[in-house]
Write a structure and sequence with these properties.
With 315 residues, the protein is of the alpha/beta class. It holds the Pfam family HTH_1. It comes from Azospirillum isscasi.
């Protein structure tokens, strides 16, 4: 503790450029602060401060020691804050951004359960499908689906985002069932336009990813609309299982091309890189990761048909 006290005295003297002011802020006498600096210099065997009647300045050795001391004290304060945060009750308003479909289908019920568990937290959730700047727009975190852009944000994987090709029993009875990805060219494929490669569906064929060009009579930027159109028999879709998992379980849609793995990604929680992660963000992210996990409930129907050899890629 003596060494830490000496460091704190030294830092205060440098920051205030005055023994008198440093002593006042440390609630010590000026003589005690002067003695600590002198003992510190004696122990180090080096002069840290240039003293004149008018000002104080750092020596070259003093500058290097000051920089190291400030880092040590900052790390100590961070460690103490981290422990305090672990024991602090999560509270306050949590601003969350999420995609519309995922929010409506899976976050609404999750949030209700979370708020019951943590009554001191309030959630303000904005649902939209645009890419938001968390820091500029004041969000604590966002739920994002797909591959992440490079950024300084911290990302925690909540669940795999598996894709599936499917159609209604009525459509398949009328138009037949494709046996290979190439046969999709003979079918009406419903196109999701909110991605750059809307008409290029990805499949793993002979251990390599390959694009298959598709076309159809319906194009839209909304996955829920595509799912409902497919259930009504309009054509074949490729969608994330979080969008169509329930329809698969109910038999409203049937999986196709199960021998060909489609492109996969993940569902993430992302949040700014801060020195101290607030308890409200930490518990919400951990709650979602526990609720969804590597085998999310919306994948039940698919996993019963096709065991996955590997999990989705980390990014």
């Amino acid at each position: 503790m003596d060494r830490l006290d000496d460091m704190m005295a030294f830092i205060k003297v440098v920051d205030t450029k005055s023994f008198t002011t440093a002593a006042e802020r440390l609630n010590l006498s000026k003589s005690v602060v002067s003695r600590r600096i002198a003992e510190l210099e004696n122990r180090l065997g080096a002069r840290l401060l240039n003293r004149t009647t008018r000002k104080l300045s750092l020596t070259e050795v003093g500058q290097a020691y000051y920089e190291r001391c400030t880092r040590i004290i900052a790390d100590l304060e961070e460690a103490e804050q981290a422990v305090a945060d672990l024991h602090a009750a999560p509270r306050g308003r949590l601003r969350v951004n999420a995609p519309v479909s995922f929010g409506l289908l899976h976050l609404a019920k999750a949030v209700a359960e979370f708020l019951e568990r943590y009554p001191s937290i309030e959630i303000e959730m904005d649902l939209n499908d645009r890419y938001v700047d968390l820091i500029d727009e004041g969000y604590d975190l966002a739920v994002r689906v797909g591959r992440l852009r490079d950024s300084s944000l911290i990302a925690k994987r909540l669940a795999p985002n598996r894709q599936v090709v499917c159609a209604s029993p009525a459509y398949l009875e009328k138009h037949g069932t494709p046996q290979t990805p190439d046969e999709l060219s003979n079918h009406n494929c419903l196109i999701y336009t909110n991605i750059p490669t809307a008409e290029q569906w990805q499949f793993r064929i002979n251990d390599a990813m390959r694009s298959v060009r598709v076309s159809g009579s319906l194009r839209t930027n909304n996955g829920d609309l595509l799912r409902e159109a497919a259930i009504a028999g309009a054509g074949i879709i490729v969608l994330p299982t979080f969008l169509c998992g329930e329809a698969l379980s109910k038999g409203q849609l049937q999986c196709l091309l199960l021998d060909y793995y489609t492109a996969e990604s993940n569902v993430f929680a992302v949040y700014p890189q801060n020195r101290h992660l607030s308890p409200k963000v930490r518990v919400f992210v951990d709650f979602l990761a526990e609720r969804f996990g590597p085998r999310p409930y919306w994948d039940c129907a698919l996993l019963s048909l096709r065991p996955f050899k590997t999990e989705a890629s980390p990014l």
